[in-house]
């Protein structure tokens, strides 16, 4: 696995938010592209993996993972336009299962990336105040070339 194309972090405490990126975020410029593709924007999507969240038991609340990007070399990150967000609502009694948008039930969600997205990207992890402790849960994001 290319560590420059992988982000991971445990969720923050209840009521908290945490931006996850490498020193320059996950950079989608011409990283790793060679030959005819050199200087082009990398084409692909972000694959988000979140484990089950047993303490996420309130169906009215959701833990979120939001795609962020920067155009100024990582000094300021903002939400992408259009906004790309995974909302993981609580499930009473059992907590939320690992989210998946695949028929096979694979435990990941593919985030589309807005057209022309380049530069550094990252993810923002948010846990509402009223949700139980999710700090044991590791969120991961991997770039997948199209």
Write the layout of secondary structure elements.
Blueprint: E1 6-10, E2 16-20, E3 26-27, E4 44-49, E5 62-69, E6 78-79, E7 85-89, E8 109-111, E9 120-127, E10 138-145
Antiparallel strand pairs: 1-10, 2-9, 3-9, 4-8, 4-10, 5-6, 5-7, 5-9
Describe the structure.
There is one protein chain. The protein has 146 residues and is mainly beta. It has no helices and ten strands. The strands form two sheets. Strands 2, 3, 5, 6, 7 and 9 form a six-stranded antiparallel sheet that branches. The chain has a four-stranded antiparallel sheet with strand order 1-10-4-8, with no helix packed on it. A hairpin with an 8-residue loop joins β5 (62-69) and β6. It starts with 5 loop residues before the first strand and ends with a strand. The model is unreliable at 30-39 (pLDDT under 50).
Structure summarized in a few sentences:
The protein has 146 residues and is mainly beta. The protein has no helices and ten strands.
Distance between the termini: 16 Å
Q: Helical element count?
A: 0
| Integer average pLDDT | 81
**How is the CATH topology named?**
Jelly Rolls
- Provide the CATH top-level class: Mainly Beta
User: Over the alpha carbons, how many angstroms does the gyration radius reach?
Assistant: 16 Å
Order of helices and strands: EEEEEEEEEE
Second rung of CATH, namely the architecture: Sandwich
